[in-house]
Amino acid sequence: MEGLKAAGVGGDHSMPSTRRTLFFLAPHDSAAAHLQDFLSLNGYSLRSGAETLLSEMSADSLGLLDLRILEQGPGLSLPIECLLARGRWLLINAQEPFRDDFLFFNAGVCGLLSGREAPSRILQALDLIAQGELWMPRAILAEAFRRQRARHTSQETVLPALTRREWQVLRGLLVAENNREIAARLGVEESTVKRHLYNLFRKVGVRNRLEALNWARAAGLQATQEFRPANRVC
Fold this sequence. Notes:
The protein is 41% helix and 12% strand. The protein is α/β, with parallel strands linked by helices. It folds into two domains: 20-149, Rossmann fold, CATH 3.40.50.2300; 164-218, Orthogonal Bundle (Arc Repressor Mutant, subunit A), CATH 1.10.10.10. A five-stranded parallel beta sheet has the order 2-1-3-4-5.
């Protein structure tokens, strides 16, 4: 780990005049603590905690996720894909070679670094992501390009006959809404949302919300697109 100093090229470097909020999710250990100190010295104001992230993050927010936290098993109170659905994220401490992990292709993931990278490289990646750029390994970009080409050149995806309500509930999953939030948006009871979820899971052949999300991503579905439901009133 580099010494705790402001990053730059040569000479003396003062604290940046403005501080940018960074949502930070990492294990509670010395390595993460050193990185937090380094980022704080270089102009970032850190916010942490899954509930804080969900309540305060917006589409333009910047987040950093240390993938080592996934090794803690059920320590997180929320599925990681729910957190990645908000903001622009840099994932660090990824294992090499980069495997085909669905997390890497989440729409909120804008950068990926292995555990070999120095804190100064993390800072560089965060600065670029904050400007709307991507910081991704060539292998991940190549796989993303391959998937996009396959999606456009293959036959049209055969989708099950979802009702309008089932599609509205699926949209809620795609933007990481819970059952209560979906029910409030649709003006129905939570029990009604659960019934639509059960029917949705049965139609697409999955067992839970995570599998439904993976199915939707594999089918190229997005929350912003229009979807034509089955020809029936629902």
